[in-house]
Amino acid sequence: MAVVIRQYTSADAQAAIEIWNEVVREGVAFPQDEELDAAAGDEFFRAQSFTGVAVVGNQIVGLYILHPNNVGRCAHIANASYAVRSDLRGQHIGSAIVSDSINRARELGFRILQFNAVVATNIHARHLYQRLGFKELGTIPGGFRMKNGSFTDIIPMFIGLT
Are 15 and 57 in contact (CB under 8 A)? Predict the structure, then answer.
């Protein structure tokens, strides 16, 4: 499967929103609990420092958003979120978009890429991030509210980009 990563355009909105909202509905990874609608979704994706879409053939199969993690003296630290269509997970699309986001963050002048809230039970994502060189910063007990209302740990992670 040849995955091409390119910059998001408004023409991608419907497919990108569907993939993003699927992860939101699953309730086990993203901090958001509200789904995006067409107008808010396009605005959200265009407002990022970079939104990349993963394309196979002519279908969008995944995406990522990249933006500063904070402001001012911490604006050199990037943050990102990733989403892959559930029916295509396990086919290395995640690896492609995470790798692309690392390179894009460097190109944009970020010095660090940090994930604030990697859900501890998201083992596949944690292993992927570790394989690509991310380091765990510790554990925040009960830092994530699951869809079912229970709480689980989060593990902030980072990779240096310089």
Answer: no
Give, as one character, the DSSP assignment of residue 130. Answer: H
For the chain, give the percent of residues with pLDDT over 90: 99
Integer Cα distance of 22 and 38 in angstroms: 14
Burial class (CB in 10 A: 0-12, 13-18, 19+), 136: middle
Average pLDDT over residues 87-105: 97
Q: How far apart are CA 78 and CA 19, in angstroms?
A: 22
Are residues 80 and 64 in contact, defined by beta-carbon separation less than 8 angstroms?
yes
Going by C-alpha positions, the residue among 70, 145, 143, 83 that lies closest to residue 111 is 70
Walk me through the domains of the chain, giving residue ranges and CATH numbers. 4-115 (3.40.630.30)
pTM of the model: 0.95
Of the pLDDT bands very low, low, confident and very high (cuts 50, 70, 90), residue 106 is very high
Q: What is the largest CA-CA distance in the chain?
A: 42
Read off φ and ψ for residue 63, nearest 5 degrees. Answer: -160, 165
Quick: pLDDT tens for 35-53: 999 999 999 999 999 999 9
Q: How far is CA 157 from the centre of its chain?
A: 13
Question: 42 in helix, strand or coil?
Answer: helix
